[in-house]
Design a protein that fits this description.
The protein is α+β, with helices and mostly antiparallel strands. It contains 12 helices and 10 strands. Strands 1, 2, 3, 4, 5, 6, 7, 8, 9 and 10 form a 10-stranded antiparallel beta sheet that branches. Strand 3 and strand 4 form a beta hairpin. Helix 4 (174-181) runs parallel beside helix 9 (427-435). Bound molecules: protoporphyrin IX containing FE (HEM).
């Protein structure tokens, strides 16, 4: 025992006995004066922080991104991409969406694929999913959608009635539902799935030319998936199956990697493109805008402490760096507010100064006049002035033009989004169904029917099936038959 470091209280005083509480004699009650006991119990009571309101179940790892493209400066000012071979440290957090902490990570659910690049110009976060599209195209519907997916206010269970009721009034979700109930809806491991920025973002180059860009992280391990039955069996045995797999791979030195590719659209193409390029329920077909390889993302280190680096990670789609900015995608615009707000509630105002969140790629770190607040632990700016402008050589604005921008016309108001020539809610869902092989279609229909057949209301089922029919008549008819058969055999 004598060689071991000394156990202390929070205030640093040596602890003489960590096995026995102080008592009134050997057989008497415990004393209120046992500060070590009280402090230990009080700290224990405060170990949990609010879980993320969505994406609560997650796994994270560090690694690096290396540029393989000779030069992207004709598209973007982003320094991260300016030289072939350049490496930038990254942190990636994978997650499921609907389950609360402790729920199986093998659920049929989109997977979050949230990457932070610690660039020399600050943190750039791509907070995407393993799907190129989403259920909705306007952030105003997001809280209702999530309520329909999470626990019912009365039963406290996830309810197929709620999920399908909401869907039946949200035809724009047909594409994402088709994706989710298809084979890729449950990855075999976190290493065997792709990641997507999903939204359209804006790039700008040194000449002020602007482009629309989408990000795709293609797994180098190959796509592997689980069937609904496999996932239920594995998740029942081991709710942290994906977490365990990722950390085991990293500990074995088997470092997973993804090839980053982009689709780039010149700014002028957007108004006449056949789909609204800012509609998150749509993809840009590769034949319209082919993939361009940019670099490789490699994960090579599990964080030493899960809570410190994964639970406290605060990835935020509004973390941009010079050369990139938001598009008018309404979902993205809502997210620009939601994440920082969630993190100020979940972690507090000084969460940006935690090691996983601080801009460690920037020389000298973050420099600004934000001060104080709960847990200002890093010197809090010391003696430096806390206002600007000042005559004390404090940090000052760069004055650089961003070059970013969106040209707008019209009155403010609430509008249905602009429809482009081939836009409707079903066209890409139907296309996705039709590129599936027959066994894939069969599994898709079975998976949908497995869930939809549990719905108690006929009108909900009828409205939901109508969306699949609108995507493809055969698709809808097969879902209708499979639901009917399952309900009859119950
Ligand atoms: C307007 C719609 C949306 C809103 C309001 C919203 C809101 C949120 C909030 C509040 C969090 C928790 C953040 C935290 O506590 O750190 C979160 C997490 C997350 N969201 Fe969204 N979200 C939206 C849409 C999306 C979309 C479209 C995607 C993907 C394309 C997405 C991907 C994620 C991911 C990956 C996380 C977990 C980040 C992490 O690993 O810490 N969300 N979302």
């Amino acid at each position: 025992m004598s060689n071991r470091p000394r156990l202390t209280t929070e205030a640093g005083a040596p602890v003489a006995d960590n096995q026995h509480s102080q008592t009134a004699g050997a057989a008497g009650p415990v004393l209120l004066q046992d500060h070590h006991l009280l402090e230990k119990l009080a700290r224990f009571n405060r170990e949990r922080i609010p879980e993320r309101v969505v994406h609560a179940v997650g796994s994270g790892a560090y690694g690096y991104f290396e540029v393989t493209h000779p030069n992207l400066s004709h598209y973007t000012l982003m320094k991260l991409f300016d030289t072939k071979g350049k490496r930038t440290e990254v942190f990636l957090r994978f997650s499921t969406v609907a389950g609360s902490k402790g729920a199986p990570d093998t659920a049929r659910d989109p997977r979050g694929f949230a990457v932070r690049f610690y660039t020399e110009d600050g943190n750039w976060d791509v907070v995407g999913n393993n799907t190129p599209v989403f259920f909705l195209r306007d952030g105003i519907k997001f809280p209702d959608f999530i309520h329909s997916q999470k626990y019912d206010p009365f039963t406290n269970c996830q309810e197929p009635d709620n999920q399908w009721d909401f869907f039946s009034y949200s035809p724009e979700a047909t594409h994402q539902f088709t994706w989710l109930f298809g084979d890729r809806g449950i990855p075999a491991t976190l290493r065997n799935m792709d990641g997507f920025g999903s939204h359209t973002f804006q790039w700008v180059n040194a000449k002020g030319e602007r482009f629309w860009v989408k990000f795709h992280f293609k797994t180098d391990q190959g796509i592997r998936t689980l069937s609904s039955e496999e996932a239920a069996a594995i998740g029942g045995r081991d709710p942290q199956h994906h977490q365990r797999d990722l950390y085991a791979a990293l500990e074995r030195g088997e470092f997973p990697s993804w090839t980053l590719k982009v689709q780039v659209m010149p700014e002028a193409d957007a108004p006449t493109y056949r789909f609204n390029p800012f509609d998150l329920t749509k993809v840009w077909p590769y034949k319209d805008y082919p993939l361009i390889e940019v670099g490789k993302l490699v994960l090579n280190r599990a964080p030493d402490n899960y809570f410190a680096d994964v639970e406290q990670a605060a990835l935020d789609p509004s973390n941009f760096v010079p050369g990139i900015g938001p598009s008018p995608d309404r979902m993205l615009q809502a997210r620009l507010f939601a994440y920082g707000d969630a993190q100020r509630y979940r972690l507090g105002i000084n969460h940006t100064r935690l090691p996983v969140n601080s801009p460690r790629g920037v020389q000298g770190g973050a420099r600004n006049y934000g001060r104080d607040g709960a847990m200002a632990f890093d010197g809090n700016g010391g003696r430096h002035k806390n206002y600007e402008p000042n005559s004390y050589h404090g940090p000052a604005q760069s004055g650089d033009a961003t070059g970013l921008g969106v040209s707008v016309t019209g009155l403010t108001g609430t509008y249905v989004p602009v429809r482009h020539a081939e836009d409707n809610d079903f066209v890409q869902a139907g296309n996705l169904y039709r590129v599936m092989s027959e066994p894939e279609r069969q599994r898709l229909v079975e998976n949908i029917a497995g869930s939809l057949s549990q719905v108690s209301r006929e009108d909900v089922i009828t409205r939901a099936i109508a969306h699949f029919r609108n995507a493809d008549e055969e698709y809808g008819a097969r879902v209708a038959k499979a639901v009917h058969d399952k309900r009859r055999s119950r």
